[in-house]
């Protein structure tokens, strides 16, 4: 992939990289607001702490998760679903911060999906070694809206595959502040994250945090 804009000084590049029709990486799109996003994440996880959910098959996921917004994604022995209440506390998920809504809408618009209003934000925390195996985001009722995925902290390799699990997956290095958007013809593409390498990030230390914005209903 060749960026069509180049970097400024010694910073990581900005600009867009096409992945597939309806899918692209917006390099550095969230970088200058990262500190504010991290402060919001800290406030959210004070109310809804990160936890390692169980898959329906009974495996504990290596990425820790929490949510904000009207609906949160949860997984347990009964399956995957969205629900308004945090199963650990019995309380609603913390509200979606305005800065999150604006970032998600701006990134979606930049990718050609105007009017994106997410009702769910899944927050994934990867410590070194944590990963996310190839999957589709298909628990949402409205598949016309894109997925907007924000990377913060340690780098990771994002796998971006095709419509079938067996399709070859492209490997895309995602850095702090990068945003990936996929929708339209790419909405149901398989994707995942390879095990995060050991490291220390200036803002987030030994972790990678991913915000995944979705319109579920
Ligand atoms: C996800 O697909 O839920 C997470 C992707 C990521 O961590 O970048
Ligand atoms: Fe996903």
UniProtKB/TrEMBL annotation:
Q: Where are the annotated coiled coils located? A: none
* Cofactor(s) the protein requires to work: Fe(2+)
Q: What is its EC number?
A: 1.14.11.33
Short name of one Pfam family: 2OG-FeII_Oxy_2
Query: Keyword Metal-binding on this protein?
Result: yes
Looking up InterPro entries in the UniProt record yields: Alkb, AlkB-like, AlkB-like_sf, Oxoglu/Fe-dep_dioxygenase_dom
Keywords for the protein's UniProt record, in alphabetical order: Dioxygenase, Iron, Metal-binding, Oxidoreductase
Domain Fe2OG dioxygenase, by residue range, is 117-217
Keyword Oxidoreductase in record: yes
Which GO molecular function annotations are given, in alphabetical order?
Answer: broad specificity oxidative DNA demethylase activity
This chain belongs to the protein called DNA oxidative demethylase AlkB
**Could you tell me the gene encoding this protein?**
alkB
């Amino acid at each position: 992939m060749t960026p069509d804009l180049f970097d400024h000084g010694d910073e990581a590049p900005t600009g867009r990289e096409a992945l597939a029709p309806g899918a692209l990486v917006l390099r550095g799109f969230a970088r200058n607001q990262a500190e504010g996003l991290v402060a919001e994440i800290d406030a959210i996880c004070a109310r809804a702490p990160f936890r390692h959910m169980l898959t329906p098959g009974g495996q504990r996921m290596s990425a820790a998760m929490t949510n904000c917004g009207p609906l949160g994604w949860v997984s347990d022995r009964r399956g995957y679903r969205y629900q308004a209440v945090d199963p650990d506390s019995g309380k609603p998920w913390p509200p979606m911060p305005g800065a999150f809504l604006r970032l998600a809408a701006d990134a979606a618009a930049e990718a050609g999906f105007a009017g994106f209003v997410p009702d769910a934000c899944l927050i994934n925390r990867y410590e070194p070694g944590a990963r996310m195996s190839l999957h589709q985001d298909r628990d949402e009722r409205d598949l016309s809206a894109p997925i907007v995925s924000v990377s913060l902290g340690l780098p990771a390799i994002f796998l971006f595959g095709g419509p079938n699990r067996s399709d070859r997956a492209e490997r895309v290095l995602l850095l702090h502040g990068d945003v990936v958007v996929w929708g339209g013809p790419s909405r149901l593409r398989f994707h995942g994250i390879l095990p995060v390498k050991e490291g220390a990030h200036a803002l987030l230390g030994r972790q990678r945090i991913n915000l995944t914005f979705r319109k579920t209903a």
